[in-house]
């Protein structure tokens, strides 16, 4: 657990740590028009790779793939820290997302392998707390690193490397999973079509309204490509020998509903997390460190909600109430955030984000627990990575869609208010997001207009998140609360029989043959004789005799009975039954 949680902590921090550092990064490397791609590139590759890691772990082993993802993550983090322009940084962040996708999915898969569903509630609470803490504590760490002169923004990528290496060593030393012989076939066509469909959708949402108009040829082309690849992916998964997302999963009501709910959770959570620091820095004028500190109420609330709900599930076995209430609380939190204004107090902001964190803590990990508990053991990896895929997909869609909403609303609001005030903004009405220092230096009338426009844009973003969270709430209502299994693995096969057991079986068979020949054997006498001949052992002799009769003698006796003459059948059958 220490190795898994450390890996999740470092990987998920890497996805959120750049939130408060982006304005500084853009100021140094340039490329303001590529601002959203620094976050979207990681979300995109994390999303499309999540189901692939789960299937590959079925083929090549959990431990090897988990350590591979860690190595990929470390290498990409180092390259990101050394980037000299936005193109290099975006490419490194894309590779980093591949590693993050593997770590986030495989940590849950491994947890499902080693902990029973009944006990998993407690552990899922810890994992959910780590996930949430890393997601919202990233901006705090990023702000501290940016504000520290002798560190700088590059350490946003370097700081996670030592923790990832420690996690690698811990996993290597203590994680012992049984070696299972698996099929070596890989669904290449399925992987290609799933990745292409998700990628086309992400490109459409990220570039639409920015690089090209929504009503344009590019929009229709990317939408058609996404739908075509989705149709081909469905066809591929129905015919593949070893599909990445087996079609039988989509006949499982629990998997479908938890996947939908996770999709909506991801949209609400990641959408809020990426744009909340922008409100704090641009509208409220807080420093990166101060804006990170404003997320602490969410960290505490998410941690407490995740851990407490997990312990309650372990004690009671009841889990459905938590995601149902959690999604409703998420909707309330987003609505409260949509009511924030330029002059909102820090106490009010802290309360609002704490409400959101409570809802996320109650729902996030419980959805994975429900999906794992409702799946067959052979589908554990596919189910876990599938639900994680939908959550990541929701996050990527949320970041892209909310970004498009904010950009378009901000542009229109600034233009309208400037015209109403009869003010001409130098350089036109296009204000670049993520430049708080430049906005604070604008003349007071223009700055006030920009801040008000930004506040209205964020109001729309958070309000759009409310019905999304409510859709997740509806999906959880229809979940069937299946009893939590007491074990995550099938019953172990009987231990191989020892040499003494085989000797005893032979003696018993010989005794039965002798009694059959004499025709005067009695079943009770057979059992007594066997018990006296049993070799010394820790177990009672009678129990040992019964074990041998069940595992060795009974299958052999079927052949004896079939070969015996009719008068002898009853005698042999009676002896075996005893």
TrEMBL record:
It holds the Pfam family MFS_1. Keywords: Membrane, Signal, Transmembrane, Transmembrane helix. Its main location: membrane. Coiled coil: none annotated. Residues 1-484 form the Major facilitator superfamily (MFS) profile domain. It comes from the Bacteria. It is found in: Cell membrane. It is a multi-pass membrane protein. Residues 1-16 form the signal peptide. PROSITE patterns: MFS (PS50850). SUPFAM superfamilies: MFS general substrate transporter. InterPro entries: MFS, MFS_dom, MFS_trans_sf. The keyword Transmembrane applies. The chain crosses the membrane at residues 35-53, 65-84, 123-146, 152-174, 186-205, 217-235, 255-276, 296-314, 321-341, 347-369, 460-479. PANTHER family: COMD, MAJOR FACILITATOR SUPERFAMILY. This is EmrB/QacA subfamily drug resistance transporter.
